[in-house]
Amino acid sequence: MSAIVAERLVAGRGGFRLPSLDLTLMPGARLALIGPNGAGKSTLLNTFAGLLKPVSGRLSVAAPVALLPPPGEVEAPFTARRMTALGRAARRGFASDLDRADLAAADAALDRLGVAHLAERPFDRLSSGQRQLVLIARTLVQDGALVLADEPTATLDPAHAARVAGALDDLAAEGRAVVVATHDLSLAARQDRVLALTPAPVEGAPSGILTPATLQALYGAPLSPCPTCGRPH
User: What is the pLDDT of residues 218-227, one digit of tens each?
Assistant: First the structure.
């Protein structure tokens, strides 16, 4: 069963519309969405998540869906442990509060990302990078068949960004489909496929999409190769 099937899908909000899109994503597959600000990456993610209705076309999405919102969208005075554990709230139904299993899952996710020491710290007093890691831990405990991550490495230093990228790789290895919207081309290069949101969307292997010519046309600026890895940046 496919994680995402989109046929002539048009996503949008307000007066904005993305071009028609055909896409199939299988369990365990990893897809990067790239494009300049305003290209519609978040709009497409939110459509996949069910937060926006398709303007037209057909969309089938595997459930449940785990969504990581963009940095700065979540603000609350909870501890980092509770903020993480709230990712399991949907499975609680009408239960009044989180239980030990929820908190244990939160602790395991925080430890997986190397931020277990933040468990009792108030979320709203953490640095922007620390908040992002806590929200990624919350995404991990949602246990979704489809993981949608909006700028997952934004605000992170290189070490933590690498840890997050590794965690997303692990989720795909567990059989979950992963879609990341990102400006981080090194993260995009780690995915199986890249979808460039141009006036005529282009999808392909990273080696075919992340080329200087394609990226210059996409972003409207020349991108020189990295002296270490050779990829455009």
Answer: 888 877 656 4
